[in-house]
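Morning!

This is the sequence you dropped in the shared folder:
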Amino acid sequence: MEKLDCIVIGAGPAGLSAALTLGRARRKIAIFDNGKNRNRVTRESNGFLTRDGIKPQVFKEIAMKELESYPSVSISNETVIQVKKEEQKDLFLIKTSNNHFYFAERILLATGIQEEFSFSQIKQYYGKSLFSCPYCDGWEQRDKPLAIIAEAEKHMIHLTKLVYNWSKDLIVFTNGHQLSNNVRNDFARKEIKIYTTRIKNLHGDNGNIKSIELESGDNILRSGGFVVPSFYRPNQFAEQLNCQINENKRIITDGGRSTTNGVYIAGETETVGPSSLMMAAADGNKAAFSINMDITLDRF
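The structure's back. Tokens below.
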């Protein structure tokens, strides 16, 4: 079985950026990706210099096309289901859902994160008219009548204050959670309405929200908005490889290196929090520098 220099799990901006750097360093690598990247539901990605407004799938296709210039890089549309360290061979072994096995000296985890919503119907509108990142989508929602859907008071305060830069026509929905008087007074001064009644239904079509119906019977017109999801890693690879993870679920790293020798982390996988395309790509580039330097020092 052929031994690879590095296996990259995940072909989002972090994994693809790392693959490009490693390919240019003449390292033999394989990228594994199952197409379940978080931004696949997004109509366009914003804020990446020279690629502002690009569709995420087009961004991915351009990156993969560029990688074809480097013969030491291969891409496989397989789902990795197991990763483990073969201590006797000092290699990592991965197994895919197609029952294929691959060996590599090093592993880069760039599988990203996924969202969960307290109100499941949000998924129908997420990435189209409901968003989580004002820096990514605030410009397109400027001056529109927007909803802020958040349950934890600290998250709601942060998001509302931030979105206020793009639109002053805001209404906050807490889905049954109460807010302190101080928050109510602060928002009242900015003429921001608050509804603490539970949400009954979201109305709209083709992913475009039109109104929010409450259990009280109120139906409030809105044409877009921002929400606060919770995030999770879609796999347990970091745990399986004994990477140290802190109390906030962040994988401890230094220059992309995890605490497990030979295991590297890039992008949203590290923080279990959302990141922009540009920041994730930068993380992949940084991790690739560490991988290449470690290989260089081991072999020189």
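Headline: Residues 117-227 form a domain with the FAD/NAD(P)-binding domain fold (CATH 3.50.50.60).

More detail when I'm at my desk.
O.
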